[in-house]
Amino acid sequence: MKKRTGIQKDLIIDQLLIAPFTFFYVGMIIIPLILIFLSSFGLVHLTTGIPKGFSLEGYRRFFFTPRYPYLYAFAFTFLVTLVATILATFIGYILALFLKIRKPKWKNFFISMMRLPLFVPYLIASFMWWTLLYPKGYLSMILKHFFGLAIPLTNDPLGIGIILCAAWMKFSIAFNIMHSQLEMLPPDLEAAARNLGANTWNVIKRIYFPLTIYGVLSAAAAIFLSVFIAFSIAFVHGTSWPRFLSMLVYRDAVERGEWLMGYTISVIYIVVAFLVSYLYMKILASREVR
C-alpha cells in the first residue's frame, strides 16, 4: 500500500513538473497550428479576407492559378533548399573529418570559428553575404577580373546567393553534430584499421561514414527544414521572380492583405515539415529493426 502511494506521489510530482512545458507546447504550438489549418479552409476568421464558411479557394489558387506561380515558387524553394542542404552538410562533415583526422594544435580555436555562424543573426549574415556577392562586392569582382565570369551571385533567378548564404549560416549545424559523433567513436577502431594497412580514405569509407550516417541525416533534416522556411535570406538575396515561398507569404498576407493565401501556404509548409520528419523517423526506425 505504501509502495502504491509512493508511485502515485511520484506521478503527481512528474505531472506538476511537466505541466509548464505542456501548457506552453499546447498554447504556443498546437493551438496556433490548428487555427492556421482551420483558417486555410475558411472555418476560423482570425483576420480579414477569409471566406465565410468552408472553402477550398486558397488551395485552388495555390495549385491551379494560371501559369502556376505558387507551384513554381514551391519547386524553386524546394530545389534551392535541397542544394543548400547538401552543400552545408558536406562542408560541415568535411571540416569535422579534418578535425578528427588531423587533430591540429589550434583545435579549440578552429571549433570556435566553425561555430561562429550560430551566433550571427540571420538578417545580419544575409546582408554580410550580400556585400560580398553583389556586383561591386569583391567576390563578384574576382570572378569578373580574373576568370572573366560576369554572372550575378545574388538577387539572381538561380538562387545562387540564397544557396551560398544559407550554406554558410547552416554548415555549423552539421559540423557540431558530426564533430560530436566522431569524437564519441572509439579510437581503437582507427588504430586497428591502420594496423591492417587501411589508408585515410578507407578509414573514412569503412569506419567513420557508416558509423555517422544517421548523424548526417539528422544534420541534413535540421538544415533542410530551417532553410526551407527561411525569410531573411530570401528577403535579401531573392529576386523578383522566381520567389521563395516565404516571400509569397509576406507578399500575400502583409502587402496585399490576402491572409487566406498566407494561411494556405503555411499549411503547405507544415505538411512538408511533417513529411520530412516522418521520412527521417522511418529511417531511424529501420535502423532499430536491423
Report on this structure.
With 290 residues, the protein is mainly α. It is 77% helix and 0% strand. The protein has a single domain, classed as MetI-like (MetI-like fold). Helix 8 packs antiparallel against helix 9 and helix 11 packs antiparallel against helix 12. The longest helix has 39 residues. It is globular, with a radius of gyration of 24 Å.
Question: What topology does this entry show?
Answer:
Layout: H1 2-40, H2 57-64, H3 69-102, H4 107-114, H5 122-133, H6 138-147, H7 160-184, H8 187-195, H9 200-228, H10 232-237, H11 245-255, H12 259-289
Helix pairs in contact: 1-12, 2-12, 3-7, 3-9, 5-7, 7-9, 8-9, 9-12, 11-12
Characteristics of this structure?
290 residues, mainly alpha, MetI-like fold, 12 helices, 77% helix
